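batch_manifest entry 22 of 60
target: histidine kinase
source organism: Rhodocytophaga rosea
requested by: lab member K.T.
priority: normal
notes from requester: please return tokens only, no post-processing; we will run our own comparison against the previous entry in this batch. if the run fails, retry once and flag.
--- input ---
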Amino acid sequence: MDRDGRRGLKLLQKKDSTFKTFTIANGFPSNTINAIAEDNKGVLWLGTNQGMVRFDPETERYQLFGMSAGVQGLQFNRQASGRLASGELLFGGNNGFNLFHPDSLKQLNLQVPLVWVDFQIFNKPVPIGRENSPLQARLNQSQTITLDYKQSVFSIEYAALNYTAPEEIQYKYRLKGFTDESWQNAGATRKVTYTNLPPKRYVFEVTTAADGRVAVPTRTLTIVITPPWWHTWWARIVFLLSATSLLTILYYSRVRRIKYQNKRLEKQVTERTLQLQKANASLQEMNGLIQEQKEEIQSQAQELEARVEIRTADLKKTNEELDNFVYRVSHDIRAPLSSILGLVTLIELEQDPTQLQLYLQMINKSIHKLDGFVKDILDYSRNSRVSMNREEINFQELVENVHAELVYMENAPRLQILKEFTINYPHFNDARRLHIIFRNLFSNAVKYQNLHCERSFLHIHIQTDKHCATIIVKDNGIGIDTWQQEKVFDMFYRGSQLSNSSGLGLYIVKETIEKLNGSIQLQSELGVGTTFIIKLPNLPLKEE
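--- output ---
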């Protein structure tokens, strides 16, 4: 049954793994199943709102037990059922509970006769034997009842005799000749009414089916509703002949007038048509040429306009980016150069060796900063203009080489590098561009360590499969604030004015990954650390 127990019983068919549904529509006693239990023979016992139902899944036969069978009531409570170790079944309802052994209940004897109880027209009993009465003999002795078309609303009452449990019997009926000739489940109702039936011959059939199968011979009653005289066959013939004659007279009269008018107009139409055809042909030819030229001009104009707009926007964007790039590059180069020039001037005036050593260290630091900035500029330039160079990537060797380059950076020795490689499939890509990506990410991890943390680490996990490589770079550095995370991939973006970075590192990383048709995802929390998740497609060797 379904979750709410309101849509009948569903039986799984083993042969094709489909469900067969038993509802009131196909003769089942009730759509509402509140409780269900299975006895030792695999027979299902159902607590419904019409009483208790015994259902055999093998034969698909069912039997309804009502008040006369000792059921506590017609309504059973939801999920109030169970089977005891003795094989007895327990069901609870609104008026108590039933405890019984399935083998102690006898099958119903359904071999009972059906009789007609009453026949009514417009809810009034039909008298027997009176003049013009449809019943000239007793109802159970009549095989056919003939009704006038004005008597098209009638009711038939029936019953099964000598049945010890009348509330458990189920009835089915149908009316042959009606729009729907299928069997209708009446439940325990013993009366059916038909209204405004069209005149014709009908056969009413009724049977009992307490377990969903026909148990006794069907009882039939033929009902003939006669049409009014104007719907009889001879009246229709007369009407048809009269209408045909009138239409024929009108038709030929109209044809004669139309022929006369057509002869007058035909000549005029022919002459005028020839003139119009000639003029129309010329106009169509000219219009076609004009339309083609117009569409071609419009298409060219739209295409040129779109090209101009795109080119203008591209040029404007390029000029803006170039102006910004030149300004930022010149500013970032000029700052360390100015610092070096100033320190050189101080060295020329300074005599103290200790102070001279300090100035030289400061110059060295500025030169390294300038060198890193120049490297970033070169990486940016090469990424945009150098073609792709595919080769099989040795990730372990690549990571080791990058690590070796950065080992002498300030605070690099206190950063522990953890490496994990899961190479399930050879990966082909541009090794030079991957080197740029790793160098910038590792360099950031060194620069932005949390110096208050006792153990700083950088964890690199690389995993490959047939389609892509997944690279996860995670550190426990100072992290990136939420409002800054959308900007860190912008060109020349620095988290603060005090930052020593060029502002190009993560921008170059993003541009390089996009050049490789990959993606990068940032996860960071201020004071906790940062994680970069990179996915790069496998680019196997092929002819360019």
